[in-house]
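#struct-pred

JT: dropping the chains for the assembly here, can someone run the whole complex?
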Amino acid sequence: MTDLTEFKQQTTEWLEANCPASMRKIQIRSEGVFGGKQFTFPSDDAKLWFDLMVDKGWTAPQWAKEYGGAGLSNDEAKILNKEMDRLGCRKPLIGHGLWMLGPALLEYGTEAQKLEHLPKIARGEIRWCQGYSEPGSGSDLASLRCKAEDLGDHYLLNGQKSWTSDGDKADWIFCLVRTNDEGIKQEGITFVLFDMDTPGITVRPVPLITGESHFCDTFLDNVKVPKDQVVGEIGKGWSVAKALLVHERTMMADIEKNMPKPKYSVDDYAKNYLASDDNGRLDDGLIRDRLAEHMMRDSAIKLTQKRAFEEGMAGDFDMRVATIFKYIGTEEKTQKDTLITDMMGMAGAGWDNENFSVDEQTKTHEWMSNKALTIAGGSSEVQLNVISKRALGLPEI
Amino acid sequence: MPLALNEEQRMLRDTARDFLQDNAPVGLMRQLRDDDNVKGYSEDLWQQMIDMGWPAVAIPEQYGGLGFGFVGVGAILQEAGKTLANSPFFNTVALGAAAIIHGGNEQQQADLLPKIAHGEMRLALAHEESNHHKSSRIECQCIINENQLTINGCKQFVAEGGNADLLIVSLRSQPTSKSAAGITLALVDPKTPGITVKKITMIDSRNYVHIDFSNVTISTDNILGKAHHGLALLDKTLDHGRICLAAEMLGGAQAMLDKTVEYLKDREQFGRKIGAFQALQHRAAKMFAELEIAKSAVIHALSAIDHDEDLAMVASTAKTLANDTYRLITDEAVQMHGGIGLTDEMDVGFYLKRCRVSIQSLGDSGFHKNRFATIQHF
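RK: done, full complex below.
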C-alpha cells in the first residue's frame, strides 16, 4: 500500500503542477481533443496539456509502455482517474480509438497490430471512426451486407456504411464486413481495419435535423484491405463487435460525466416562461400536472439506480432489473425535453442566435438531438425485447 | 437513506412471504367475500400475525414493540398485497400507531402503544367526508368546552371502522371554514353514545363504514396532539398511511404481473404461446419497468419515515407511482387474460377491485400531483 500512497502523492503533485487552469473546467463537445491528422487544438493550453500527458503515457494509462501507455496497474489507474476527477482535469484525449478500438485490439489483436496501431492512438496521431451500421442494418446490425471478397492476400470491399461518426475527420476506420453469405448471419462477419485514404472510399457528411453533421455516409467501391488488418478470426467479427459495445457504454458514461451541469432545473422553465397566479400556481393546469409527474418519475428512476447499487452490495439484487435502465431513462429524458420546449412555447422552437438566447437555442437543439437517445445504442423497442426475454422469460417471437 | 433492506428486514420479508402465501392465499379473501364476512378478515389469521409480533414491528421498544421501523411494516404489507391478505394491521399500525407515536402524550402512548403491540387494540382513522380524499376540508365539528368535547357530523368510508376498538377522528374545532388552523384530532371509543355506525360494502370486500356523530361528548383527555393545531399531525399520519398503502399496492401489482406473465407463457392461440406476440411482450416489459421504478419510490419513502425526514414529497411521489403502476398492471392483466379475466373464477378481478379502492384511498394521482406542485411552488 505504501507504493500506492507514494504514487498518489506524486500523481497529485504532478497534476497540480502541470494541468493548466483552463483545462480544469467543464468542457463542451467542441472543445474535446480527438486527435488525428486533420485536428487543430481548440487552445494552446489544450495542446500543452495533451503533450504533457502523452509524454507521461497517461492518455492511455493502463496500456503497456511499448503501446504508448504508462503500464499502470488497475489500482494506479484508479488513483489517477480519481485524482483527475477530483481536480477537475479534462481528458487530454478522447475518441473512438482510445475508448473502443484500443481495448478491442488489446483483447483480440495480433502483436503486430497492437504495435502498429496502439501507439498512434495513445499519441493522438490517428483518429478512428466506426463502420458498423448500414442503410439496411440498424437495430438488426447482424444483417449487414457490406461485401468483402477474398482475393488471396487481401479483401476487396464493396458496400455502404451509415452513421459513421465524424467519418470526414477520421484517418482510419474499424469496420464490420461480410466474408460469408451462408449460415447464421452473425457468423459470416469479419472485423477489419483500413486507412480512410485508401482508393475507392467516398465520405459524405449527413446534415441532421439539428443543422449539424456529425455523421457520414461512407461508400466503399473496390476498396483493398490487406488480410493482416483482420482483427480476431475471420468470420468471428461479431464477437469483437460485441466486446466493443461494452466499451461504448463506458465511453458514453465518461462523456456524460464531463458534460456541463444544466443551468436551470426543469421547474425553472415553468417559472421563467409561464404565467402563474398570485400563489405561484401555474395557470396551465395540464403543464403543471406533466411537470409534477416528470419530477416524480425522474426521482424514482434515479432512486432505482441507487437501489440497484445498494441491493447489489447487500447481495439482494434482482439482476433482471438491470434490463430497464436504458429504456426507462432515455424515454423519460425525451419526455423531459418535450416538456421543457412546450413550456418555452415559441422560444422552444427558435433557430437563429439573434432573437433567441444561447439557453433557448440549446434547449431546442437538445429536444431534437436527444431524439437519438431512444434510437441509438439499441432502440427502445429493442430494449423492450430484451426486457421481455431476459427479465420476463417470454418466448422468442 | 438506505434503499436496500438490511438482513433483519429481509428475514422479516421472507417470513411474511412464506407465511402469507401458505396461510392467506387469495382463496381466503374469496372465502370471506362468499361468506359475506362482516369483518372482512380472518380472526385466526390476525391472531397468528399477532403471535408473530407483526403489530409490534414499528412500536418503539420502550412500549413493548420491536422498534423495527416502517421499512419493516412496508415489507409485510407488500407481501400482504401479493395475496390480498386483509387484517387490521394496516389501519392499526400505519395510521393508528403512527398518529399516537407522533402526536400522543405520555399517558396516551403508555396506555395505547403496548396494547397495539400486543394486538389488543385495533384502530381506524375516521377522516374522509366525501367521495374524494382531502386533507384539510373538514366539516365534522367539535366544540371544546372546559374539559369536554362535543362532536357533531359525519365521517365516510372509514376503513376497518366497523372493527376498530378506537377511532382517531379529525375534527373542525374552530369554524374557520377551509383554513389550516382549527383542526383537532381526537381518540373516540366507537361505543360512545351518540355514535351510529353504518356498514357499507365496497368492491374490495373489506370493512368500511360511515359514522354519524350526534352530540357525542367525551373528555378533552382524548385530544390527540394540540387542540386546534392538528393539521400537521393529521398530514403526517396520512403520509404514513399513503406510503404504507403504496407498499401494499406494489405487492398486488407484483402478483398481477407475475400471474399475467405466467398466463402469457401458457395460453396458446394461432398455434403459439401468446407471450410470443410482440404486441403483448412490449406491454409486459413496460409493466415490469414501471413496477421497478415505483418500488424505488416506495422504499425511499418508507426509509424516510424511519429517518424522520420530511414526508410530504416522498409520500406523494410514492402514492402517485403506486396508483399509476397498480392501475396499469391490473388493467393490462384483465386485457391480456382476455375473456377469462372477466370471470369471477379468476383472481384477476379481485386485484382489479382492490386496486380501484386503494387508488381512491388516501389520495389519487391527481390529488398527489397537485399537492407535490403546491409544495414545489409551481
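JT: nice. The longest strand of chain A covers residues 154-165. Chain A has a mean pLDDT of 93.
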